[in-house]
Structures are given as structure tokens and as C-alpha cells.
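Quick question, first post here. What does this chain look like in 3D?
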Amino acid sequence: MKVVIRADGGGSVGWGHLSRCAALAEVLSEAGVEVDWACRAEPSVQTLTGTTPALTLSGPPTLGALPASEAQVVSAFAADADWIIVDHYGADTAYLKGLRSQSSARVLLFEDHQVRSGADLRLAPTQESSPDTLTGAGFQVVRPCFSRTRTQTERRGWLLALGGADPRDDTAACVTELQSGPPLT
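> Answer (accepted):
Ran it through. C-alpha cells below.
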């Protein structure tokens, strides 16, 4: 199985979308799924995803509307994918439709507060139950090291939750510092 994840992160737009997609990618990879990333150019993306995006899209990260022309580029890139996962506020119905222009992949759309049509499946843990939507706390995407199913003695590491836009790249700086220094306990 192959999955393409379309998400952005950066100081101007925050890291939440990319972080939760990284959590999902981690679980998928552990299950043997091939995961490729399609992201806008941002030097710190690799820090959170653990890999360089296979498709680097032009322009800086944005919260604004995504152009249909970009959807066609992602669709061509995902021609052999089974799923395209989109976590972006700017993915409107036209964009989601454009993802199908050259790919027969199914589309999973992460939703926070929005409700959009055009996806095969929506992942919306904080929303009310609706058709073709995964809702409720059981679908909240959390990296396994922070899961409640592990005992305290098995947990290692830090959870950084700065939230929202991060114009000074404090999140990336914290991650880099934690990775470069001695292990913290």
C-alpha cells in the first residue's frame, strides 16, 4: 500500500497539521505502508517528519486556498498511490476534486473545525458523528510514545505543544535542541 500525505508546516502557519500527519505516517510506516510527503518548501519539515518530502511544492507554506493547479501536480505524483491524505485548511472541494485528475487514490481529509465535501473519508475526531467520518477521541492522532496505552515507565521523550503559528520557529528550535543535546530523562 502507498500513501501520499499533503500537509504544510512552518513558522507562519504553525506545526500542528504536519505533526499529526507525522504521527499517522509513523503508524502507517510501522505497518509496512509506503509513505511519501508532498509539502511546500520549509527547511524544518524534515525535522518533524523524519524525511525529506518526496514532492516539494512551490511557494511558502500558507493557510490560504490551495490552487487547483497544485492539486493536479499532487495527483500526478500520487498516480500509483492508494490514498492521498490531505491536512490543510485551504483544500476546498475544487482542490479535492483535482486530486483525482490523474490518480485513482482515495482521499482522506483531516478536519478540525471545518466541514468540507469531496473526500472519500474524513478524519474529524472533535466533530459530531456523520457519514464517512471518523469521529471521537479514539481517532485522535497521537504518536505512540504519548499514548495512554503505554505505562509511565515505557514513556520516553518530550511532548512539545506550542500551538498555532510560530513565526520565530520556536518548535523547530526546541526539537533541534532536544535531538542534539544529551538525552533528557
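The first helix runs from residue 16 to 30.
Strands lie at 2-7, 34-40, 55-57, 83-87, 106-110, 121-123, 133-134.
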